[in-house]
Amino acid sequence: GGLYVITAYGTLERSHVLHARQQTIFGHFAARGMAGEADENGDRSLDVGELFRYLETNVAVWADEATAGYSHQTPQLIFGTAEAESRGTFPTVLPVAGDLLGDLQAL
Question: What is residue 74's DSSP assignment?
């Protein structure tokens, strides 16, 4: 158990916005990740670690490419127990809904 928090960006960074979609880049990738793109092992359920790794990679790459490396955005994982980190196991966030992924891929 415990509380897990994924922040949109790290210290001295800022959140980037996709103005055309009227949403943050973090929100954009969070929605795509929770719709199934973050399901690394294909078990149709998403755990905190899978979602964080997906966000960390995709948000950082987008920010670096969009700003030609001038600005960074690196999501951070904060949790109240070191046990999950040391074991590399995280609680399941939600089951993956296949229809949501199809809807998001159409965007």
Answer: -
Listed in sequence order, the residues at least 6 apart from 29 whose beta carbon sits closer than 8 Å to its beta carbon are 54, 55, 58, 59, 62
Q: Summarize pLDDT for 15-72 with one digit per residue, the tens.
A: 999 888 889 999 999 999 999 999 999 988 898 889 999 999 999 999 999 999 999 9
CA distances from 33 to 8, 48, 66 (A): 14, 11, 20
The answer to whether 97 and 20 have CB atoms below 8 angstroms apart is: no
pTM score: 0.79
Going by C-alpha positions, the residue among 6, 40, 33 that lies closest to residue 100 is 33
Strands 4-7 and 92-95: unpaired
Position 1, amino acid: G
CB 81 within 8 A of CB 51: no
The type of residue at 102 is G
